[in-house]
Amino acid sequence: MDKQAILEKQRTYLWPNYLLYYTDPLPLERGEGLYVWDVEGRRYLDFFAGILTTSVGHRHPKVTERVKEQVDKIVHTSTLYPHENTVNLAEKLAEIAPGRLQQSFFTNSGTEANETAIMLAKVYTGQQEVIALRHGYSGRSALAMSLTGISSWRIGGTQVPGIKHAPNAYCYRCPLKLSYPQCGVACAYALEDVIKTSTSGKIAAVLVEPIQGVGGFVTPPPEYFKIVEEITHHYGGLLIVDEVQTGFGRTGTYWFGIEHWDVEPDIMTMAKGIANGFPLGNTMTRPEIAEAMPQAGLTISTFGGNPVSSIAALATIEVLQEEADPGHVAEVGSHLRKGLDALWEKYPVIGEVRGKGLMQGVELVKDRESKEPAPDAVNMLFEETKARGLLIGKGGAYGNVVRVAPPLTATKAHVEEALEILDEAFARVQEAFS
Ligand SMILES: Cc1ncc(COP(=O)(O)O)c(C=O)c1O
Q: What are the structural domains, with CATH classification, of the chain?
């Protein structure tokens, strides 16, 4: 089908609120490794990986082969019948997950993984109130939108009661108007004020992302999560760590983002990069916490952890271990970071570069003094990079953060190729915004 026909049907038969990148939306047809092709045969270097999801690149032969084998055997069983792939995947996850996290509950998306985490925390603690962070993103259900801390993603004013938001550790735009490190990480201690003033004083959970993804790759300072963990436990809550974007080595050095802060989650959620594009969500915890569930009632997930998604996840993790482990990501990520820092030196439209591993954010501003967000500059950068054959992502509460997050199998050569295009595109954007 040609491009115009696809776009016409999109307009006619899909809801108009689909968020489509680019002035002229881009229907993709196929992918291979780090590259994708549109329906007109144009090739793009994919530095957004389907929103940080194709962790081992498009159409990785090992993932494809194992999925095809599984499709030929059985596609669906439901969670009523145990399956070899699902239990093997759960075992593999227990091997790489931090601390004592051992047991999994599989669903189909990050939203459901977070829903399941909140349900578990409420059941285990017997408490109802939950704290999330401003600028966080938790998904698209009523509960997940209520946990989300960015107004544009909270459709319809849907409010699940009992959720409060604490300030995040957004040092570039400190919510408390302080500067790190003189601030003494006051934003972390502000969590205690929120619990003391806006809840009954007893909480079920605090939910955090190690690096806020949709929020614009906001990366807290080293002391932050230890303080948050201590306060959470002091008030009887469980610490839920959402690794939907940061999991599976994305941040380099460790398999999960929170390990950079040396904190052990009580509950950890994951999705996106777990199965290279096959739908799978997971909520992990310690056996003594999961133990609270059977007495609480019944819950199933019809598709959750189905044999096909599970084998895709197992193959994805094996490929990561063989070809793109967290050490590889740290190395290629630091190459990317050096290149982006060099662009920061060159182009004042770049206010800040931040992130870890292959999860790097570039915040664009009108000028470095006022730090006024420049979403228009991001939009122009999008068109300029697309025209040169590079796909990137965007985010941030003000729509002014470029998200650079290629498949984890990216090499330094891929990074060089992306940096060259970014350099040319930023030159145009800087000229237009000076
Ligand atoms: C940190 C985080 N949590 C949860 C979600 C929701 O995941 P899904 O879109 O798979 O429901 C997302 C999606 O972007 C996310 O970034």
A: 3-55+324-433 (3.90.1150.10), 62-323 (3.40.640.10)
